[in-house]
Every structure is written in structure tokens, then in C-alpha cells.
Structure of BTB/POZ and TAZ domain-containing protein 1-like:
Amino acid sequence: ATATATAAADQSISPSIYRELPEPDVYILASGGLRIPAHSGILASISPVLEHVIYRPSKNRNAEKVISILGVPSDAVVSFVRFLYSSRCTAEHLEKHGIHMLALSHVYMVPQLKAMCTKDLAQRLTIESVVDVLQLARLCNASDLYLKCMKFVADHFKFVDKTEGWKFIQDNDPWLELDILQFIDETESRKHRNRRMRKERKLYVELHEAMECLEHICSEGCTIVGPYNVEPKKEREPCSHYSTCHGLQLLIKHFATCKKRNNGVGCGRCKRMWQLLKLHSSICDHSDCCKVPLCRKFKQRSPEDNPQWKMLVRKVVSARAMSSLSLANGTKRSDLNDGRRGIGTFRLQAGRRCRTAAFC
């Protein structure tokens, strides 16, 4: 066993350097009675814990120095000693003894090896091993590995729930079980919150695009609607600049000819158009020369006291600022509109034929 251990240490150090080292002055006792010869100076320079063990006062100064490292397989101890000499650890050794070497690196305060073990274990997590690695990460204060294990459990809980490791936690460690369940609940709440925020952000961006489209129609004109002094374009294809343009033109055309609106009753589509005109007026900075109908009249009215409306205006203005920043940084409009066909109330039909489904 001693010859085997010496050979293992010799593989970690080049022969020329090994010949220059003095005779081993300390032995590491591993499981199964394996004695690994080592040099106290090297061990003490790498591990402050081993330094304390080696140089602590002893009653018998002439006694042989032996450091016991038990509780882990002897091969793991050999790999640990090899790392102390060479500062290297192969992928094969990490795969075989990563869990044990993480425990040794934590106990003997070898941060470089601890970082290597935590990184390797995080990449090798499985349904069966994640609970064991999680418990070890908590004991070894490996926060990065602990967090990755928690995320892995949260993503695969319906499978982890059936493992022996989870049953062991339920029977023996209720506090860890509670931490895991709370983490899963917080993760789900955070995902739901992020989905809601993304949906709201998308809606505000779409409303901002509708405001730009409204200005485009009222100032430049488009395929079927435009200012009185501008002839509509004779194009059969929908406007290529704004995904909501055709639907908004149909809404304006309906708004101008709706009989219910003329009778003072109004319809849902007309009310939606009023809201869009009012929203435009709330965010317009040049109402004196703005060509959008009723912009100045809405400005002259008393300001809206509804807090929800004020919040909507702020969100749309913020979306306009973010859109301008994205365009300034080189983002294409097609990238901003990717995956969208229009604002929430202007869903357009795919293909050449477009319609405003929300108002039919």
C-alpha cells in the first residue's frame, strides 16, 4: 500500500522535482490502513489546517508524525494528496471522487480544489444525486453549488419527489425540506411575476407603436386613410412600417362613418378610437402643430384625475423612451416587432388580408 501511494504521488510531480525533495517526514493514514508518505512543508504550505496539525506541540518529539484522514475512500485521499502536490486534478478523479474531495477541501481549507469540485459537481447534477449534493453543499458552505442544486430541484421537483434522497430529507431534515419548498414557491411566484411584467411591457410597446402609427396616418397618409390634402397610396399590400397600420386605418374609417356615433350612442369600436386619440393627446409634446384630430381639444380639457389612466400614460411614455434608446443602439424595428401582429386591440390576420378582429 505504501508503494502504491508513493507511486501515485510520484505521478503528480515530475521525476526531477521529486528527486530534489527530502525524505518524507509525515504519513497520511487513510481508510483500510493505507499509509501515504508526504512532506510536512508542502502540506503546511497548501492547507492551514494541516499546518496546524503538523506543527502543534507533541509530547513525544521523536514519534512518527501521522495524520489520519478517515471517513472517505482511500482513493479519494490519494487524489487529494496528489492535488496538494501538483495543484491539478483530472476530470476522471473529479468524476469518481468529486463529492469526497469537496468535503476534504472544505475541512482542510483548500479553496482552489473546492472551487474545482463545486464547478464539476454542478455540471453533473442528476435527479438521483441532486439531494445528496445539496446537503453536502450546505454543510460545506458552497453557496454557488447550493443555489444551483436548489434551482435543479425546483425545475425537476416532480421527479426528485420520488427519490430516496427526498424521502430521507422528509424523515430526517424537515428544516431543509422547508427551505426547498419555500424556494420552489418563490421561484414559481417570480416566474409568474416576470411573465406578467413581460406581457404588460409588450402591451405598452404595442400602444406606443399605435401612437406612432396614428401620427403616420394623420400626417403622411397610408394605403386607405390619410389627411384631406394627401392622396392615399395605391398599394394593395399593408403598410410595411407598422404592423398595426392597416387595422388602425380600418378603425379610423369606421369612426368617421359610424351612424351610432352620430346618434350619440356610440359603439365599442368608436369608444376605443376615442381612447386612442385621448392617449395620443396625453403623450403628445407638440399639440399646437399636431395633425392628429382632437389632439389640441383634449389638451385644453382638465387633466385626467384617474390614477390608472396616469399610470397608463407613464408606461407608454416609458416604452417610447426605451424604443428610442433601442433604435439609437442599432436595434432594428423588425426586431422590436418580432412575434407581434399588433396591439392588444388590433390583432391582424396573417397574410395579405388584414382585419381588426377585436372590433368586428
